[in-house]
Amino acid sequence: MQTSVQQPSDSQPNIVRTERGLTISGTKTTLYDVLDYLQAQYPPIKIREKLKLSKAQINAAFAYIEAYRSELDAEYREILQMAENNLSYLETHRHKRLVPAVAISNELDQAALRVKLQAWKNKLSVTV
Questions:
Q1: CA triplet 56, 60, 64: central angle to 5 degrees?
Q2: How far is CA 1 from CA 54, 60, 94, 122, 124, in A?
């Protein structure tokens, strides 16, 4: 779902709010993507090239960022915090998914697996 957001008075309506956040209309590029590159001190032309945006799109993004900088910075900090929390959660719980696979490979050697596989193949060929 897209909703239009208030634009700076001198720009075209090129920024919309989607389920991903503030997005450049007609793209999947969010203003947070642009802010990531600005934080890394990329020049505007490189940001435009990296994100494959037109001059009008990047200008609309910069105009919106300039006009609503404080609100956007607060939202951007929230997005970064959520991303950090998600990464922390995944790192904490990643090993829980890997342990069963390691346990299985340690319990059954390759020969035992081949015997089981052949038994299944034999069973399937009889029932077909």
A1: 175
A2: 23, 21, 32, 52, 48
Is the pLDDT at 97 greater than 70? The verdict is no
To the nearest whole percent, how much of the chain has pLDDT over 70?
Answer: 77
Among 39, 33, 44, 43, CA closest to 79: 33
Amino acid at 109: D
- CA–CA gap between residue 71 and residue 31 (Å, rounded): 12
- Token look-up 């090129």 returns 14
In this prediction, residue 90 carries a pLDDT of: 86
Token readout for 90 is: 């995944």
Give the span between the Cα atoms of 21 and 44, in whole angstroms.
21
